[in-house]
Amino acid sequence: MCYNAPMKHGTVKNGRGSGWLPLDNAAKIYPPAMTEGWNALFRVSVTLDEPVDRQVLKRALLKTVARFPNFAMRLRRGFFWYYLDKLDGAPDIRDDVQNPCARMLFRENGGFAFRVRCFGRRIAVEIFHVITDGAGGLSFLKTLTAEYISIKYGVKVPREGDILDCDEPASAEELADGFLTHAGPKAVPEPPVRAYRLYGTPDRDFLHVTCGILDAAEISARAKAAGVTVTEYLTTVLLFAAADWKKARGGVLQARRPVKVTVPVNLRRLFGCRTLRNFANYANVGLDTRLGEYGFDEAVQIVHHQLKLETDPRRLAAKVASNVGIERNVFMRLVPLFIKDPIMSIAYRIEGDRKSTTCLSNLGLVKLPGEMEAHVERFDFMLGSLIENPVACAAIGYGGKLYVNFTRTIRESFLERAFFTRLVKMGIKVFIESNEDR
Amino acid sequence: MSYCVNCGVELNESERRCPLCGVEVINPAKPYSPNAERPFPASAENVTHRAVRVIAAKVLSLLLAIPFISVLLADLVKDGRLTWSLIPAGCIALFFMAAVFPCLFRRPRVWLFILFGTLETAAFLFGLYMLLGGNWYFLFALPVTLLTGAFVIGCQLMLGSKKASLPLKMIIVLVLAAVFVLVLQMLIELHLKSRIHFDWSLYAAVACAMLAVVVLIVGSLIRKRENVRKKLFF
Fold first, then answer.
1. Average pLDDT, stretch A146-150?
2. Chain B residue closest to A38 (CA)?
3. What is the CATH number of the domain that holds A69?
4. ipTM here
5. Could you tell me if residue A124 is inside a domain?
6. What whole-number distance in Å separates Cα of residue A178 and Cα of residue A170?
7. CA-based nearest residue in chain A for residue B4
8. What is the CA angle A20-A59-A107, rounded to 5?
């Protein structure tokens, strides 16, 4: 039995990452699904007011990694499951590249499942999903930045919220698998409804990034006026963009499929959990355009109510229980990894992200203590390429701006164009930058 | 600051074209400067899939080396010289070349692989011809091999074309198939009976031609489907 493994394997005995960790429930699918050219990555980055000092960053990184034992780990194969094994030190700091979230080869990265990149004033952390999710990644980046600012400027940054104190050891709760402790009593799997799928000219080895910078107060005011959250408002705009795509590009075989957007839900707040590992689930919201046209005001209310229903803690606990049930299944546990590996890989490819047209992950508004705010100009969040869906969207707010990053592995920029031009038509100012070749 | 005239979004100074629609940014007040600060560096991480291909090529080489060496040794030990083993060894070499050649390419170039396979087969048959003798190679085996290669490459290029419509692709492939069977029978007849005569190939060619006509009609009907829908309304 390894369900409460963090408490058994010495990982938290000294708080410095000795021992090993079984993968959490959400992470289990990613190692079988990864290939030489693809693994599930996401990236959080911070832009400072001065060029980054790499020596200082290395020192800050060593301290931060020691505080986050789940980052100081190497992915290994066991006989039945993959697991994370303790690793000393921290990865080398690398130059940033034009194509972020390119596949990560662990052997090129000292065995670590995350990498830190630097470009001018920007520090970026690209993380393989086996370690943690977006909220855990942001906590790591904020702590790293706090540590960097403390060392560089000699200021004492107060450690509050998800900015952790690197002099304290990691607690058992921070390393626990939240899925196992918060699974509901009844397992209810999500109905397998296939969503409309975007397609285009594949460009898998180059992740096209288009960042739209919006005024956070303006978007927030619009959302408030509609009686919804910013995430719900943006999701509605994205659903309309996907519906525009479907209308313009069609696809005879997919005509009956609804457009759907996956919205990751951070379960920490809902379940009062402080884990630093994966602890998110998904809500799938959509518009069935077969039934007729929707006005924006109607759609935004539909999305609001759908998300409310989908994020009901009991419903989420039931979905978690369903996923945990698969992991706890005796057959799944007893089958050796070399058999399980290809089966899980194929299953993920078939079912992985087919239930949604695209994804919108919003990390929300980043709040920093004043000591950090003086040196931090911007935050960015982006998703690496998904297994099947070619376009993903991620948002983060900081300093009065909302940064919406579209990432895609196809050449066609139809979706982000439809998204941003719709905002422009609604009277919202959009500033665009990208990593396109000039 | 520059705006995209097509999308209405404000663009970063580093953007020469609008990333959303590709329209060039022309702002006489602020022309594009390649030295503008860019959000990402110019160098990209090179993502290669070479390792998988190299491993595949190595494993295949090892697996095929065992029967290749075994047959040659068995023949050599028994007879003291190489006789029958050259044929299975040649077959293994043929398979090896066909499987390893594509591993050298990052992107699949199917027409090139087929061309290489055709030439390889021709070379293998030439080896057999030198070993066995006879007059079958230049008059029959070589033309049939080249004809088959040309037919498969033609079909592949046609089906992979992005410009041609599906009905057009199907019509051309059917015409190619008709020509292929006619020339094939001509070569067989010339080699076996030293005459030109068509019988079975005519049936196949006529069937292909009729199918091509059906596709042509259906294709034109699809283009005029509104008319069809009107006529068949019930």
1. 96
2. B47
3. 3.30.559.10
4. 0.86
5. yes
6. 15
7. A432
8. 50
